[in-house]
Amino acid sequence: MFEVHQNPHPRTEAERAAILADPGFGLHFSDHMALATWTVEEGWYDREITAYGPFQLDPASAVLHYAQEIFEGLKAYRHADDTIWLFRPEKNAERFARSATRLALPVLPTEDFLSSIETLVTTDQAWVPGGGESNLYIRPFMFANEVFLGVRPARTVTYCCIAGPAAAYFPKGVQPVNIWLSTSYVRAAGPGGMGAAKTGGNYAASLIAQQEAYENGCEQVLFTDGAERKWVEELGGMNVYLVTGDNKLITPALEGTILEGVTRDSVLTLGAERGLQIEERKLAVDEVLHGIESGAITEIFACGTAAVINPVGSIKTAQKSYVINNGESGPHTDGLRQTLLDIQYGRTPDTHGWMHKVC
Ligand SMILES: Cc1ncc(COP(=O)(O)O)c(C=O)c1O
After folding, report:
1. pLDDT tens for residues 240-275?
2. Res 172 pLDDT > 80
3. What totals of helices (H) and strands (E) does the chain contain, helices first?
4. Is 27:164 a contact under the CB 8 Å cutoff?
5. Is 304 a pocket residue for ligand 1 (Cβ < 6 Å)?
6. Which residues pair with 34 in a beta bridge?
7. Residue 131 confidence (pLDDT)
8. Distances (CA, A) of 222 to 106, 132, 180
9. Residue (of 267, 272, 275, 269) closest to 301 by Cα position
10. Which of 336, 293, 301, 338 is nearest to 317 (CA)?
11. How confident is the model at residue 279 (pLDDT cuts 50, 70, 90)?
C-alpha cells in the first residue's frame, strides 16, 4: 500500500491546463511521486505518494559513483469515456525485477510496482491528457542510496516513480527516421553484460554514437553486438524489425544482450495475426544491407513505448546510405502501428487482455 500524502502546494488548474496544452516530452511532471526505501535490515518500507520534489543526495551516495540504478518507462492512456488505462504494466514489473537482479539491487515485488503506479496515476489523474495521442509517461526507477565509497551492492536503496504529460510523438504525422549504423561504438557488452537490463549505464554508453548519428544527419543509432560487431541488436531506445517481400517479420532474437521490449513482444503477436511469418533469430548486418539493396526487405521499423512504431527511412554507414521503400513507411508498419494505438487508446476491443484499468 502506498499511503497518499497530498501535495500541499499543487499547481493551479490554470497552470496545469497551460502545461497540458503543450506538454512536449519529459519536460513537465505531475504534482506527486511514489517513494519507497529498502535496507538490508528492513526490506521495503515507507511506501508513500508524496509531493513531487528534489532529493537530497549525499555527495558520497553510491549511485553517483558506481551507477547502480535501473528504470522503466510506460504510459497511462485516457480513453474516450475518461477511464485511464495502462498497457501491459506487469511486463514492466517483470523487466524491472530482472534489471534489479542484474544490477544487484533488491527486487520490488510486482504488487508494489503496480500499486505505486496505480496510486500515483489515480492521485494525479487530472494530469493524464485527453484527446489525440497524448498520454501520461510514467518513469519508475531505483537507485543505490547508501553513503559509501567502495564497490559492492548498496545496503540502502530508493525506489521512486514520477510521471509527466507527453504530447503525441508525431504531432504532424509519422516521420520515417534515418538511422546511423555505428561501427565504432557498442551500447552493451556481449552475453554476460548488461544489455538486457534497463540501466543508465547502457544509455550513457550510447550517447557518443548518438552524437555521431546527429553529425551524419541521422536521428537514431543502430547498434551491433559487442563481441563480433556483425549482428544487428537494437536502436538506442527501441527494438528493430524488418519485413520482407515474402511476408516475413524478422527481429533479432533475445540472447541477453538487448532490451526485451514490451512493444517488441506485442508486435510478435500482432504480426502473426496479420498473417506474417515471424522469425526471431540472429540477423547479420550484411543480410540487412544486401536485403535493402536487392529489394527483398520492403520495410524496416523500430518500436518502443515512446514512439510506438517508427518507420525507418534509411540506414546510413560511413560509405553509403541504404534507402528503404523510397524512404517512406510501408503498409505493415502503418497497420501494426494503428492496431497497437487502437488497443492502447481503447478504440478497438482488447482481445489479448493487455489493458489494465487504473481508474
Ligand atoms: C534500448 C531500448 N530498447 C528497446 C526499448 C523498447 O522497449 P519498450 O517497448 O518496452 O518500451 C527501449 C525503450 O524502453 C529501449 O530503451
Report:
1. 999 999 999 999 999 999 999 999 999 999 999 999
2. no
3. 8, 18
4. yes
5. yes
6. 49, 161
7. 78
8. 32, 30, 6
9. 267
10. 293
11. very high
Does residue 261 line the site of ligand 1, with CB under 6 A?
yes
- Note the pLDDT of residue 169: 78
Atom 4 (ligand 1) nearest CA: 238
Note the pLDDT tens digit of each residue in 51-94.
Answer: 999 999 999 999 999 999 999 999 999 999 999 999 999 999 99
Q: How far is the CA of 239 from the centre of ligand 1 (A)?
A: 6
- Cα–Cα distances (Å) from 274 to 23, 115, 333, in that order, read 34, 35, 11
Residue 201 and residue 194 in contact, taking contact as beta carbons nearer than 8 Å: yes
Please report the atom of ligand 1 found closest to the CA of residue 202: 1
What local confidence, expressed as pLDDT, does residue 205 receive?
96
Give the Å distances, CA to CA, from 96 to 65, 93, 117, 118, 288.
21, 5, 13, 16, 31
Nearest CA residue ID for atom 6, ligand 1: 304
Q: Which helix (H) or strand (E) holds 93?
A: helix 89-102
Residue 128 has pLDDT above 80, yes or no: yes
Ligand 1, atom 7: closest residue by C-alpha? 261
- The grid coordinates listed for 149 are 565509497
